[in-house]
Amino acid sequence: MAEPELESIELIEPKAERKSDILERLGEKGLVFGISGIVAIAFAGLLFRYRGDGYLLGLAWVLILAGVGGVLFALYQTTQVKKVTSVDIECVYCHDNNEFTSFPEDDFRCGGCNRLIPVLDGKILEVQQVRCGYCNTLNYYSEKNEVLICEECDHEIPLATTDGTVKHVMRAYAVTDDDRLYELVLTGSGHKNEDLINALQHILALNRNQVKLMLTELPVTILTGISRKKAEILQAQLSIHEGSSEMHALN
């Protein structure tokens, strides 16, 4: 008789947290329990002093036990502070120190400059500098960037790759103050129709026939009421498959 196969259980690794966040949680919990314990003990002392006929003695003992438990738990929380591990990570932009409990697996924001620090395969990526040809503002990018948009004027900055070709990359780590909503209009398709159809199917959640019909009715609005950042990201994805598009502000 064949033995039943055991279902594989995927273990989820705990996500790296900032050391300061954990210390803050431990401190708050210890403070709440410590103060509550002291208040309970103080109230029990009053009950003992003014116990009258003694019918409140039971409540007083309960408060003392609860208060002592709260104080002991608060002391225990302080011992846990010393056990919090620390991994120091220097920001590649401002060189500020970021403390985590373990090495982050994903991109994270620096606590000093609030820029997104790129992480790939367990290591911090180097960032390169490039000046915008429109406003001369200094921008940063890493190998994870697929599109680069100037943080100051929002113009797209073409980046030269190592083989001398130019790829259009948008600034995934840029923060803009544009709160307007946009519509994305598909204006043309190139020679990579199959790739473009697959991309549109994924973006719009449509079937193949619906997407093919859409391509026969260009220009066509494919999304409306989206943020500028999302519109720029989708524009970049479409351009990879030779799909030309325009984004128009709605207000």
What would you say this structure looks like, in words?
The chain has 251 residues and is an alpha+beta fold. The protein has five helices and 13 strands. Strands 12-11-13 form a three-stranded antiparallel sheet, covered by helices on one side. A two-stranded antiparallel ribbon has the order 1-2. The chain has a two-stranded antiparallel ribbon with strand order 3-4. A hairpin with a 6-residue loop joins strand 1 and strand 2. Helix 1 runs antiparallel to helix 2. The longest helix is centred in the N-terminal third of the chain and has 31 residues. The radius of gyration is 29 Å and the shape is elongated.
Element layout with pairings:
Blueprint: H1 19-49, H2 57-81, E1 87-90, E2 97-100, E3 108-109, E4 116-117, E5 119-120, E6 123-124, E7 128-131, E8 138-141, E9 157-160, E10 166-169, E11 181-188, H3 193-204, H4 208-215, E12 220-227, H5 228-240, E13 244-249
Antiparallel strand pairs: 1-2, 3-4, 5-6, 7-8, 9-10, 11-12, 11-13
Characteristic terms for this protein:
disordered N terminus; 35% helix; single chain; 22% strand; 251 residues; 3-stranded antiparallel beta sheet; two-stranded antiparallel ribbon; alpha+beta
